[in-house]
Amino acid sequence: MSWRVANACAERKFGSATRKQIIMFLADKASDDGSGIWCSKGTIQRHTELGETTVKRTIRDFLKEGILVETGARGCKNGFTVVYRIDLARIEALELTAEPDIETGAIVDPVQTGPGTGATVAGVPGPPRPPNHPKTIHKPLTRERVAGEEEVAEKILAAYPPDRLRRRAECLGRIKEILDAGTEVEDLSQAVKAYATESAGFTRSKVCFSDNWFKSGRWRTYVEDIARGREETKAKESEMLAGLANWVTEKHPLCRHITPSQIDALLAAELVTQAQIQAAGLGS
Length: 284
Hints:
Layout: H1 3-10, H2 17-28, E1 37-38, H3 41-48, H4 52-65, E2 68-76, E3 79-86, H5 88-92, H6 143-158, H7 168-180, H8 185-198, H9 210-215, H10 219-250, H11 260-268, H12 274-279
Antiparallel strand pairs: 1-3, 2-3
Helix pairs in contact: 1-2, 3-4, 6-7, 6-8, 8-10
């Protein structure tokens, strides 16, 4: 489960309660970059208690709108299941659910802005702010967490070509915002290194200074390429495991070439059973 993806989806409007329910279920299955969603439409139907036609239509609509992307297929006991990725850039472009802050000015009988703090039965004052207040920070920053974020941001920025660094404090702030929005630390670090390598021979007039690079979102293309490469690798691994599973179920002679780590992967993916492994002559 990725709370980053779930939060991003929860804060956006999807047009209907049905669409929101399905995207939230998918977000619960995603990695932090939105990828790795492996669940059949039947699974979605059972858990959301929606109709089969409704689920299929909604998934089809999400694919057309670019909210979902098919990244491959993974073998299962019934054949294969499509692997999806939630496009976080597309999610971020959707309308927010939060109401805008509107200053309405004073009124004759002003409304109290906070909850009452009158005494309870036990004589204990009420809380100054309810736990679900929109401005409540559910995961307060600690000194250790702030220090850790500063260190991570510094390491990422250190990979940027030093002759193109500009407005260091602003860059560090941008990096923290990008990470808070759900981008993985390793992905952003690799994106900075990839740009540094790609632009190594550029003249000063053709380079992008660090503040503009982070502010304009030029990092996003590199992060997406990294995620795409990871998804392609996962798809190839899934395809390979599906082939190995066929060898096992058919007791193919090539089974003898399957390594112990591949056997563990097959069992973890539930593509074969321990009994099938032993029947193929691979059991210990």
